[in-house]
Amino acid sequence: MMIYIYVSMISFLSGILVFSIKRKHLLLMLLSLEFIMLSLFFNLILYLSWMNYEFYFSLIFVSMSVCEGSLGLSILVMMIRSHGSDYFQSFNLLW
Fold it and tell me: Residue 92: pLDDT above 70?
């Protein structure tokens, strides 16, 4: 059981590391955010099964993470249509 917790924490920390390193591309930031959500979901499932709780909160968590992902993708599409790429440096053209 402890190996799953260690794997979940290592995946969470690696997602945060990728999020902080790849801050120039919006697509890579969104992918790392989804990876962080996936590791948090795995950690939540482990905690709920370990404490013998119901899994209804996990359904709410998954639906909120899906909504976050769809909003991020819509922002990505809007940014690519207006500026041509997903670099954050392309915003400097506006100023």
Answer: no
